[in-house]
Amino acid sequence: MTRSFLWTVLVMSVVVGSVFSAEEKTHTREYFLGRYGTLVFGLPKDWKDESKNPKGDVPPTLKITRSKPQRAEALVTPVWSSSGAQPPTDLEVRALVKAQGERLLQDSVEKELVLLELNTSDVHGYYYTLSDRNPKRGGYPFVTQGMVSVGGLVMSFGVLTMTPDAAEIREVVEIVGGARLRPGLFYAYRCGLLDFKLKVVLAMAAGFRVQTVMDTESKYEVVLNDVRIVAEPIQRGLNISATSTNLERADKLLHDLMTGVEQIR
């Protein structure tokens, strides 16, 4: 078993915000997933996170690490189909996790795979822990990996630790188990990226709070008041996805913003 396996299996978006709880033991992290909505986690403050957002309709990756009292590394990634296929059922998720674990058994101390169930109000899935038979010097001897469903979205997760019963494993499982998916909006319009940017400029002139997050030839990401919007060019049009804590308000804002532009989806 090697780190590379975990790293290739678990390949999240730019953080929208961070809010500490009253006890300041955890803070809320929000990861914008475009048309799929926003994934929300409660992250213990002694864990650090970093995220990578690949180009195109490719799932982003969240890496979280902890150095004390024991070092540990974890990856979390949402999984979706660019072809629009339905997400796997609970039985299919279990079968995927089981097959993944059984492939690792040949390099593990364990001879049998023990699947554990993760079940909370919003999350349901399976995971396992295995011990590397020949750990590399300075590497992690134990890996915990699994897959869960949250709000209709499938999410893979894994954590590398120094001991099989590390508190870090329980914390990552709690982080994943506490995840929730905030739904998003998705439309397509008959216009170009420059047309949309002009709409944003006019909204700013009308008094909207505007914060540009990303501005490239292939993607324009902006926050209008509390609505996060991503515009991506398609053939003869523009895909626009949006999310907010208030979807009804976000829907009205988006339609007001695009007044006079033909909606094609």
Write the layout of secondary structure elements.
Blueprint: H1 3-9, E1 15-20, E2 26-32, E3 38-44, E4 48-52, E5 61-66, E6 72-79, H2 90-104, E7 116-119, E8 123-131, E9 142-150, E10 153-161, H3 167-177, E11 180-182, E12 184-189, H4 193-205, E13 210-215, E14 220-224, E15 227-234, E16 237-243, H5 247-257
Antiparallel strand pairs: 1-2, 2-3, 3-11, 4-5, 5-6, 6-10, 7-8, 8-9, 9-10, 12-16, 13-14, 14-15, 15-16
Give the strand tally.
16
What percent of residues adopt helix (DSSP H or I)? 10-25%
Q: What gross morphology would you assign?
A: elongated
Order of helices and strands: HEEEEEEHEEEEHEEHEEEEH
Describe the structure.
By secondary structure, the chain is an alpha+beta fold. It has two domains: 3-182, Mog1/PsbP, alpha/beta/alpha sandwich (Protein Transport Mog1p, Chain A, 3-Layer(aba) Sandwich); 184-257, TATA-Binding Protein (2-Layer Sandwich). It is 22% helix and 40% strand. It has five helices and 16 strands. The chain has helices spanning 3-9, 90-104, 167-177, 193-205, 247-257; strands at residues 15-20, 26-32, 38-44, 48-52, 61-66, 72-79, 116-119, 123-131, 142-150, 153-161, 180-182, 184-189, 210-215, 220-224, 227-234, 237-243. The protein has a seven-stranded antiparallel beta sheet with strand order 4-5-6-10-9-8-7, sandwiched between helices. A five-stranded antiparallel beta sheet has the order 12-16-15-14-13. A hairpin with a 5-residue loop joins β1 (15-20) and β2 (26-32).
